[in-house]
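Checked the freezer inventory, then went back to the computational side. Two predictions to log before the end of the day. The first one is the construct we discussed on Monday; recording sequence and tokens without edits.
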Amino acid sequence: MTDRRRDAEAAADRVPGSRFSARLYEPVLWLGEKTGLARWRQRLIADATGEVMELGAGTGLNLRHYRPGLERLVLVEPDAHKARLLAEKTPPAGVDPEIVRAPGELLPFADDSFDTVVMTLVLCTVADPPATAAEIRRVLRPDGRLLFMEHVRSDGPRMGPLQDRLENLWVKLADGCHCNRRTVPMLRDNGFEVEVKVSKDQFPMPPVARPIVSGVARPEA
């Protein structure tokens, strides 16, 4: 194990998580998945090509949507409990994914390693979103793409301020999730050109965890 990989795993051990929350993750999302999130994942991940890294792979809800025979697939998940559940999932035909425990702020990969980075419902939980965005940009090739699906702070005059007020409570209830992250502006402020393809506020998920946006971000030249 390299020093960089060892440092990343040590940092991953400090990321919030538990066996209970890992087991509860998919049941909590079940209704949202059945009513649209799974279709969003499928459409998003169909565009993943070349050498791919998924950041925050969780328990593997995205795994079945990757193309058979994908050139390379690295699944990054800091939570050891979720990583164990992830390892039990069946990958697409011809794909032998590598599971790496690391936080988004410390990715143990060389510069320009990947053609595609995928993340779904991830930037709400990272400790330092700008640092994570910088790491994603570093490991992406110059012509690479970040495919994302995230829940973000509402622009509504009532819900947005409510999310701000509830943030500290939500972090405790939802295993480190921040309900008021301004993710799209953050990516734009940290060197990405962002195209939001879909935005929806009608999923059967807690109102503080909406809307959900999906799109593609590319490193600025």
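The second is the one RB wanted added to the comparison set:
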Amino acid sequence: MSKTSQRHIGPVALMLTGLGSIIGSGWLFGAAHAAQIAGPAAIFAWLIGMAIILAIALTYAELGTMFPETGGMVRYARYSHGSLLGFMAGWANWIAIVAVIPIEAEASVQYMSSWSFPWAQALYQHGELSTTGLLISAALVLVYFLLNYWSARLFTKANSAITVFKVLVPGALSVH
């Protein structure tokens, strides 16, 4: 196999890819919305959510060691409930994966609209993207797609940097 056709993602980059996927864009909005609704008690909602996600993650980790095959999201459903549910789980997983790039692009523009610059505040108005916001979202969809398409190495470096940012910013802000 030639060097250019090899794709290798190291364990740290793989872990950061999973962590970045779990965090998603919720870190941009989740804390603010939770604080508006529940005030200081929002921390309990985060702890409950953490416990639930941990239970799911540990279940998938156990299933992954029991059935060390690719396509676990589909295979586990097929093993436990038959081929119809496996098929449905596969399609649901595919739709979720396909939706990630446009969701992240829209969330990025929505977050940019909270900046104090007048051009940024005009991107998202009355709960909808403005024309400029739509154009920036479309450009971000293209950038995010190309980042994933060009190479695993480029993707993992960019994703690792973004994930570290996603962890450090809320961590630094929580100290103050």
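For RB: The longest helix spans residues 83-112. The chain has a mean pLDDT of 84. Let me know if you want it refolded.
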